[in-house]
Each structure stands twice: as structure tokens, then as C-alpha cells.
Write a structure and sequence with these properties.
This protein is mainly alpha-helical and 68 residues long. It is built from four helices and two strands, in the order H-H-H-H-E-E. It is globular, with a radius of gyration of 11 Å.
């Protein structure tokens, strides 16, 4: 059976990997997610934006960084 990240359960592999990592880490930021899931920062930021617009994640600015 394919893993959740492989099949892109939440639209794309990047979105799925992002959600799995956020769930595992709790609060985090885009650069940390990009490093952990092995995707570019811009792809992770686009995924986070999409997930926030869909109401799946909530982000907040803390200092100069957006945390999710």
C-alpha cells in the first residue's frame, strides 16, 4: 500500500507532506517544514497559503516569521 505522502491525499504530495509534518511537529514555520520534507521553500509556502485559504491550517505572524 502506498504511503499517504506518496498518493497526495490532500491534493498534492507537497500539501500532504506539509500537513503530516505540521501534525508531527505541532507549531512550526515554512523554512523548517521545507527542510524536513525536502521541498523548496516556495513550494511549502504555496502549500501553506493554500491550506490556510481552505481553512485547514491557521497561521500567525510571530516576530517576522509566519508560524503554523
Amino acid at each position: 500500500m502506498a504511503s499517504l505522502v506518496t498518493v497526495g491525499l490532500f491534493g498534492t504530495q507537497t500539501r500532504t507532506a506539509t500537513l503530516v509534518a505540521v501534525h508531527a511537529l505541532g507549531e512550526t514555520h515554512a523554512a523548517e517544514l521545507a527542510r524536513i520534507i525536502g521541498r523548496s521553500l516556495s513550494r511549502v509556502q504555496a502549500s501553506l497559503d493554500s491550506l490556510e485559504r481552505a481553512g485547514v491550517l491557521v497561521g500567525a505572524l510571530v516576530g517576522g516569521a509566519r508560524r503554523v
